[in-house]
Structure formats: C-alpha cells, structure tokens
Specification:
9 strands, alpha+beta, 7-stranded antiparallel β-sheet
Length: 210
C-alpha cells in the first residue's frame, strides 16, 4: 500500500478487528473515517452471488460519472480482468482476505490515470458478507471527475496477510491482465513458493515470513 487513503483505512480496520478475521459492519463508524468517505465503498453479494456496491462515496461516483449503488463491482474492469476481480472479491467475502489492486483507469475522452484499490472484509454473517474498500487516485489530474472513467486494466494485485503486513515493505506481485486458465484462484498467485512463467512473464513470490 502506497496511498494515504489505503494506509489510513487499513490501520483503522486493523484496530477495529482486534485480532479477529474481520470487524463487524456495525462497528464501522463513518465519523471515524470522515476524511476518507468520499473515496470509500461497501460491497455486498446480490442474489446471483455477484459483488455489487451497497454504498459508494461521492468522489468515487464522480470519477465514474454515475451513482454506483447497486452497480456490479467486477464490471468496472475490462472483460478480460472481470473473472479475476470476481474471484478476488469472493476471497474477501469467504476467506476474509485483504486485497490491494493497482489499476489503470481510462476515461471516456481517452485519458488515463492510475489508481490503488484496497478491499477489507467485514463480518456481516454467513448470509450477508460485506467488504469495505477505498479507491485512491495516484495522481489527481484536472479532468478527473469531469471525464468519467469507463474502463480499467489491472496492473498488479497483492493478497495480504494482515498479521504479517508491514506497510510499504513488501512488493506487489505483477500479473498479466489476461489471466491464464491455470490460475484457478487468487491463492494460486499468493502462495506459490517458486518462480514460474506465465506466457511472456515470470512471476516470483517471496513466500510467507516465518
């Protein structure tokens, strides 16, 4: 995590959970993170099992030029990345994983900007999984909020162990946007203890610290 919004929200979430896999949704107090609210969101799972926005901040909605409530979260990305995003969020819902995604967003007018996204699990019970997140613009060009983001491609992802996380001390794992079929789950990316080739790229994993 490099952006202040991600770091601040992670630290707040980590304090709330107090050693548990995730804090309860009711424990999150908007007043405690009022400086982040414009960029934060909460996801829920709809009747089809897909991740959709339950709430989204005003600046986030302005970035995308629409009200995001009820909107499909994976659909923010280009089709080739949607399957991977769906599986990552499934891991947040079901396995209480913490995920950081760096991506490039493309506007309707052909401009682009880089973003950092952090997703954090919330305990809403078996029937009502929730996810708290924030999207931070790496830079804030004059057009952002006026020229809507309509497409996005993943640059890198990172699945974090909160118990071992040292902010700004571990590298992200670069992955191609076109995910090969052999990557059957996000855990495949984060747990391999050796280098391997994915098409034209080589992916290295540093393993878990003991």
């Amino acid at each position: 995590m490099k952006q202040n919004g991600s770091i601040t929200l992670f630290q707040y979430w980590n304090r709330l959970r107090d050693g548990r896999p995730a804090p309860k949704r009711s424990e999150v107090e908007p007043a405690d993170i009022k400086s982040l609210l414009a960029d934060t969101f909460i996801l829920e799972r709809d009747t089809r099992g897909q991740a959709v926005f339950r709430l989204a901040g005003t600046r986030l909605c302005a970035h995308y030029g629409r009200e995001l409530k009820g909107f499909s979260f994976p659909s923010l990305w280009r089709e080739k990345d949607q399957r991977l995003v769906s599986r990552l969020i499934h891991g947040v819902f079901e396995n209480k994983s913490v995920v950081v995604i760096h991506f490039e967003g493309f506007s309707r007018g052909g401009r682009s900007n880089r973003f950092e996204l952090l997703t954090l699990p919330l305990d809403g019970g078996i029937e009502n999984p929730r996810c708290l997140g924030v999207i931070s613009a790496v830079e804030k060009p004059f057009w952002l909020g006026a020229d809507p983001i309509t497409d996005a491609l993943i640059d890198s992802i990172r699945v974090i162990d909160p118990e071992k996380e040292l902010i700004n001390n571990r590298s992200a794992i670069d992955v191609p946007s076109l995910v090969p079929d052999e990557l059957e789950a996000p855990e495949t990316i984060s747990t391999l203890g050796r280098a391997r080739r994915i098409r034209h790229l080589v992916v290295f994993d540093g393993g878990r610290e003991e």
